[in-house]
């Protein structure tokens, strides 16, 4: 089952079970995917967003909500922070399991070996290979410095 079908089925079940908070989050996800579909049509791709695109959208939504929750907590708006974190838990239900630090380090070492990266100039090649293989499974904001440490 594709990610798009899984989202659609969850949306239908949330409607049936009258889960309003979950339903609103699923609708936000659907809207973001439809926006991506429209932009891809403008680029000449008629199939719409692939699962990899959808995973990238979901990862971006999680990151945005974590940042919003942090801002709300700093402003003392705890009820809004809780709402953002509830949305994060719904969105993360569609993302693959996040790799641990040890698994990330192992993946980086294997990718460096596969791409034959030798210096800091090869960091883009290594991160590109990691993104194609582990999209949605690791936070690439954290991975960049780890790759840099391995290549120095």
Can you describe this structure?
By secondary structure, the chain is mostly helical. It has two domains: 90 residues, Hypothetical Protein Yqey, Chain: A, domain1, CATH 1.10.1510.10; 51 residues, Arc Repressor Mutant, subunit A. 76% of the residues lie in helices and 0% in strands. Helix 5 crosses helix 6, helix 5 packs across helix 7 and helix 6 crosses helix 7. It is globular, with a radius of gyration of 18 Å. The N and C termini lie far apart (42 Å).
What's the short version?
This protein is an all-alpha fold.
Q: How many discrete structural domains?
A: 2
Number of helices: 7
Return the string of H and E elements: HHHHHHH
The secondary-structure class comes to: mainly alpha
How large is the share of residues in beta strands?
under 5%
- Please, what is the average pLDDT? 89
The residue fraction in helices comes out at over 70%
How many beta-strand segments? 0
* Uncertain spans: none
What is the third-level CATH name, the topology of the largest domain?
Answer: Hypothetical Protein Yqey, Chain: A, domain1
Short key terms for the protein model shown above:
single chain, 152 residues, mainly alpha, Hypothetical Protein Yqey, Chain: A, domain1, Arc Repressor Mutant, subunit A, 76% helix
Set down the secondary structure blueprint.
Blueprint: H1 3-16, H2 20-42, H3 51-74, H4 78-92, H5 101-115, H6 123-134, H7 140-151
């Amino acid at each position: 089952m594709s990610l798009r079908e899984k989202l659609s089925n969850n949306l239908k079940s949330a409607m049936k079970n009258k889960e309003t908070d979950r339903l609103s989050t699923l609708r936000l996800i659907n809207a973001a995917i439809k926006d991506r579909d429209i932009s891809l049509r403008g680029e000449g791709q008629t199939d719409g967003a692939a699962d990899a695109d959808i995973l990238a959208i979901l990862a971006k939504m999680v990151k945005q909500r974590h940042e919003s929750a942090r801002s709300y907590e700093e402003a003392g708006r705890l009820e809004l922070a809780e709402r953002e974190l509830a949305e994060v838990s719904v969105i993360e239900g569609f993302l693959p399991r996040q790799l641990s630090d040890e698994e990330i380090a192992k993946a980086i070492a294997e990718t460096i070996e596969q791409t034959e990266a030798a210096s800091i100039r090869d960091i883009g090649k290594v991160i590109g290979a990691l993104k194609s293989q582990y999209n949605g499974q690791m936070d690439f904001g954290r991975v960049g410095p780890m790759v840099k440490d391995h290549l120095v």
